[in-house]
Specification:
The chain is α/β, with parallel strands linked by helices. It contains 19 helices and 18 strands.
Length: about 550
């Protein structure tokens, strides 16, 4: 068990947490949610002891071991990949070093022999004889090939380093596991493996993530950071979101009787409980929800941006024709022989084992770069808007946000005064003096929201969205997701957000050096198909 007792944290006059009292129990996975800047990662650092709170303290059951997903990718550069994982279990790693030191002695004495016997006994009790095998299995499951296990960490690409650090945190079955954005840098297969691993994990997990599918798959409880307070709610993210929204609607209806509210909430809980269908933790959630007192549910004070794309005109029959596109970078093919046609109603998930290939395809279709082979044609009725993964070039200026937005107003738009522009920015939660911020000081999330404001001004009927949820908080992702479901135009989306792709897309196009796959089906069916999995592997061979 781990407890936060009367924890408060202030930076100068800014109060981040106030009198937080939480208890995390064995067998549960707690997902910490909250707006960007609310202090989710900071709270994990308080739990781990990296940050000392202004007031209060953290207590851990004596003898329990904590593991933390490290964020510094260079911390273990001088160690082998396998040793970096073993170092996650500090007591075992010290034993390994002590054993090596004893056995390396040239003048091995009787007392050294006694010490070696003691070390061997403790080493065996901690699972030391299976340690390298267990560490190797974790690495392989997370997509780190066995050929790299004895390489130095400094020789690994950054996307592989984060997998090693994740294996380090998971190694040795820690009693308390603290994970900050554990799905970052993982491919679809690795994320699925991690979901299954954590869903059956029998100890305490506390996780921060913007991946709603991941939170739904692993969490038994949600920890909501709101207004300097933190509260634990039973259920996963979707249950918290839907029940909170339901209660907010109920409270806004002054004529609804208390009995009606209670009955509606109880019916909702019963429906949600019935949806728990797999894994030990899903069963645990179901039992917890059945016992849930509805007084535990509270409406959220969150603000959700108004992301609403309204096409000025309906797209015609000719939308987009792509014929034999290919891009080569530094002599290597990112993708080749990519051909497809978009039809009305298409909402396409664009995938690749190499994310650089996706970025390149979107840049080509948006007219930002040229293809090395093939051609494409947009229909004459199509008005497109592009949200690139890298927004830096769009904000490398000293304009105020409102002046920057004014530059993006389409020619011929009427009534473009300050009130009009403030209205668009206000929908994206830029209020008051926020609109006078300089572009170069905007955060990652603010840049995405600003870019969406400019795109909405275009009234497009076709959207190119390359990693649209990057940098956004859960509230913005949720609002964006819901609008894309209702958007009447066509969409091409690349995203690591499983829920976004599954709920929005009706078609999958995966690209690679050896061509492309084009399937009219939803995202989950695509991932679960054995025949498609074999074809996917051929794209990159």
């Amino acid at each position: 068990m781990i407890q936060a007792i009367h924890v408060s944290l202030a930076y100068g006059k800014r109060l981040l947490f106030d009198e937080v009292n939480l208890q995390f129990n064995k067998g549960n996975c707690y997902g910490i949610i909250g707006a960007n800047g609310a202090g989710k990662s900071t709270f994990l650092k308080i739990l781990s002891g990296e940050i000392v709170p202004t007031k209060g303290h953290v207590e851990i059951t004596p003898g329990e071991r904590m593991a933390v997903l490290r964020q510094n990718q260079s911390e273990f550069d001088n160690h082998s990949v396998l040793n970096a994982v073993l170092m996650g279990h500090h007591k075992l790693w010290k034993l390994i070093r002590d054993r090596e030191e004893v056995y390396a002695k040239a003048d091995f004495s009787e007392s050294d022999g006694i010490l070696a016997a003691q070390l061997e006994e403790e080493f065996g009790e901690l699972g030391g004889y299976m340690a390298e095998s267990d560490a190797g299995s974790l690495l392989s499951a997370l997509g780190v090939d066995e050929s790299l296990h004895h390489s130095f960490m400094s020789d690994l690409a950054s996307n592989l380093k984060v997998r090693v650090l994740l294996a380090q945190a998971l190694f040795g079955n820690p009693d308390i596991l603290l994970l900050d954005e554990p799905t970052n840098g993982l491919d679809l297969e690795s994320v699925a493996w991690l979901e299954n691993f954590l869903a059956d994990y029998e100890n305490i997990v506390v996780v921060v993530s913007h991946d709603r599918h991941f939170l739904d798959a692993v969490c038994t409880h949600v920890v909501d950071v709101d207004r300097q307070r933190m509260n634990i709610y039973t259920g996963n993210y979707s249950f918290w979101y839907e029940s909170s929204q339901l209660l907010s609607r109920q409270l806004s209806d002054k004529n609804k009787k208390i009995e009606d509210r209670r009955r509606e909430l109880m019916e909702f809980i019963a429906r949600f409980s019935a949806n728990a269908s797999k894994s030990r933790q899903a069963t645990s959630r179901k039992k917890a929800l059945e016992k849930l007192n509805i007084e535990q549910i509270q409406p959220s004070s969150r603000k959700y941006p108004g992301i609403v794309f309204k096409p000025e005109r309906e797209p015609g029959d000719q939308i987009l024709s792509v014929d034999g596109l290919g891009v080569i970078v530094e002599g290597q093919s990112l993708f080749s022989r990519v051909s497809f046609m978009l039809n009305k109603g298409d909402k396409v998930a664009v995938l690749s084992r190499n994310q650089m290939a996706v970025h390149a395809l979107f840049d080509v279709l948006a007219g930002v770069r040229d293809a090395d082979a093939g051609r494409y044609t947009w229909g004459t009725t199509i008005t497109r808007a592009y949200l690139p993964a890298d927004l830096s070039m769009h904000f490398a200026n000293d304009l105020t946000l409102i002046d920057w937005l004014r530059e993006g107003v389409p020619p011929g738009t009427q009534d473009v005064d300050e009130i009009f522009l403030r209205g668009y920015l206000g929908r994206m939660l830029f209020s008051g003096d926020d609109v006078l911020k300089r572009c170069k000081v905007l955060s990652g999330g603010e840049k995405v929201r600003a870019m969406l404001s400019r795109m909405m001004l275009q009234n497009p009927n076709a959207l190119l969205l390359d990693e649209p949820t990057n940098h956004l908080d859960l509230e913005s992702i949720q609002a964006f997701n819901e609008n894309m479901i209702e958007f009447p135009g066509v969409v091409l989306i690349s995203s690591h957000d499983h829920t976004f792709l599954q709920s929005v897309c009706n078609r999958i196009i995966e690209i690679g050096p050896n061509g492309c796959l084009d399937k009219l089906m939803d995202f989950d069916d695509y991932l679960e198909s054995e025949s498609i999995r074999e074809a996917r592997n051929q794209l990159s061979v």
